[in-house]
Design brief:
By secondary structure, the chain is mostly helical. It has two domains: 96 residues, no CATH class; 25 residues. It is built from four helices and no strands. Helix 1 packs antiparallel against helix 2 and helix 1 crosses helix 3. The N and C termini lie far apart (45 Å).
Length: 130
């Protein structure tokens, strides 16, 4: 994602061939598609019984961030220009994407630490519906 955004932004600002822009945009499109599925798979694999509630929460967060980004991108582009804006967005994307390192390192420990709370929540939910 960061490489695609930077290629697209710097390329558009400096007038590179349309092929370079298509490659950058293709990289961004691929990452948008796969980037949505990875956290959903992690949630469903890790917290099967709460996957519905987790999906709703993830969708609300995603839509809120999408609204905020879409609301703020036009003034940002107008103020900083396409190159600087997309390089900054690329760095933000790198920061968000790099959080997977945190989960690779500490994910198992976090799931173990939350297991007791998870099962209490499941028991409470099952008791309330039966």
């Amino acid at each position: 994602m960061p490489a695609g955004l930077i290629l697209w932004g710097v390329g558009a600002a400096h007038g590179i061939s349309w092929g370079g822009l298509v490659i950058g945009l293709g990289m961004v499109g691929f990452c948008l598609t796969t980037g949505g599925g990875v956290p959903i798979n992690y949630l469903v694999d890790s917290y099967k019984d709460l996957s519905g509630e987790g999906l709703i929460t993830m969708i609300l967060i995603r839509n809120t961030m999408s609204f905020g980004f879409n609301y703020g991108i036009t003034p940002w582009l107008t103020t900083c220009g396409i190159q600087n804006t997309l390089v900054a967005v690329g760095m933000l994307a790198f920061g968000f994407t790099a959080t997977f390192f945190f989960f690779v390192k500490f994910g198992k420990r976090l799931r173990r630490a939350s297991a007791r709370t998870y099962w209490k929540y499941i028991e409470k939910g099952i008791g309330a519906t039966h």
